[in-house]
Amino acid sequence: MDAQHLTSFTLEHLTQAALVRSVLAAALQAADPYQAVRSALHRTGDLLKVDEQIYPLKNFQNIYVIGAGKAAYPMALAVEDILGDHLTNGLMVTKEGHLPPQPALRRVHILEAGHPLPDERGIEAARRMLHLLDTTTADDLVFCLISGGGSALMTAPAEGVSLSDLQQLTNILLRCGASIAQINTLRKHLDQVKGGGLARRAAPARVCTLILSDVVGDPLETIASGPTVPDASTFQDAWKVLELFSLLDETPQGILSYLRRGLQGEAAETLKPGDPIFQRVQNVLAASNAQAANAAAERAKTFGFHTLRLTTFLQGEARQAGMLLAAIARQIHASAEPLSRPACLITGGETTVTVRGSGKGGRNQELVLGAVEGLAQVPQSLLISLATDGGDGPTDAAGAVASDTTLLRARALGLEPQDFLNRNDAYHFFEPLGDLLKTGPTRTNVNDLQFLFVF
Predict the structure, then answer these.
(1) DSSP secondary structure string, 416-449?
(2) Could you tell me the pTM of the whole model?
(3) Does 112 score more than 70 pLDDT?
């Protein structure tokens, strides 16, 4: 990240700017999908070891790669580099704009599709993957590579559910404040590939799934809606999400009709724990938010910061989380608790935004906006919140930055933080200040990270 992305505060303190950039870089390096896959797969000759499982490569007639997510390209490249000629072919799908100009893949074809709203390209990608899986036998091995964004990118609507229905429901869910687990409970019960659906179609082939987690706490059944993972949730749980957020009147009739069929036992449930299909499925967590946060903390320590990884379970309303982090900065300033200066406090997770206004922004931008007034009371303070995939909400920003000078600079331009919070318009608050983080796609996704510095 360039110094210009770290506010006027850090432009005046170039040494601190370099340190901050290095701490952030350490987090992203720890979540690098290519290296994560290389670290998970250990090949010696024709033997491939994944965790404690050994795969004799010469025993398989075909070895395929399928999967979805924002990290699809580097994950597929790593598998190709490790397996070489043992790999038959493969098909994956990633978010539009997440492929390099000249992909170096030789045997795995990657399609692009829409995110966060599913589109026809994602449906076509899922159709082609299911067609490939329908040809597999017990002598085949399927690598499934999953990363954040997979739920929207790989879509096979259940019978009677249209793409328009799913798009409308997704838009409603993203704006109501529902958690990703709640959103994916619904997705799993409206789709053929989610909730163990890919494992079902791959049977009787062996399946090895490598997963980059973008969900708080790393529940494998929630990440990309768990295409190869048992799902304990039910149609009743899915219906309760709609009731909890009072969404029944807004939900398309096609979706309500299908869920009612499921409640009556007329539609197949997701695959449950204990299903014999999972005896031939291995799911491995390859990288996570906690790994990225830990790497950042270790880097900060080498620079002399008093460092604390407070939590990787940060959830709730984004603006409230920002206010909390600003309050911690004030505590550091007032009493050197929980850290003394120079301090680097790191959190990770995924907050939510209940959209009530018509503005533009994302959860990371709104989190930082919620901290602006509190940071103004803490000299030499800096807060950064970013989406590790480089995209915060429906914007071209990864997040935002604020310091103790942000409020003063904003008011000099006639910008009042509370006005922009009321409109959910964090993007247009930070844009004229030059305090949006614009990294472009990072081709990884391990959720969000926050970095609070008090120099």
Answers:
(1) -HHHHHHTT-HHHHHTTTT-EE-----S----EE
(2) 0.87
(3) yes
